[in-house]
Amino acid sequence: VQMVESGGGLVQPGGSARLSCATSGFTFRTNSMSWVRQAAGEVPEWVSSILPNGFSTTYTDSVKGRFTISRDNSKNTLYLQMNNLKPEDTAVYYCAKGGQYDWRYWGQGTRVTVSS
What we know:
Elements: E1 2-6, E2 9-11, E3 17-24, E4 33-38, E5 45-50, E6 57-59, E7 67-72, E8 77-82, E9 91-97, E10 110-114
Parallel strand pairs: 2-10
Antiparallel strand pairs: 1-3, 3-8, 4-5, 4-9, 5-6, 7-8, 9-10
């Protein structure tokens, strides 16, 4: 399994960023996928999940209305659109195979820093 996240960087509060995760080594289109994040000194936190068909999504309360998860099964790629970013969103973001309660990640993550 390989997962390569991209799209992070330094963003001002209130700004936006779009994360991407290119995957290989497993059948992407048949798996639920998730984004998780880990702030410095904290345990990983589940952020959002999407079912294989892309029609059902779930979010942790702190990002509802601001983040949108999506997927392109033809490209084996997962996305996370993040709007109205806040300093507390600062973390390393990982894409993960699985849903809210059974995710596992393999990649190096992409760092998002929200600061002025």
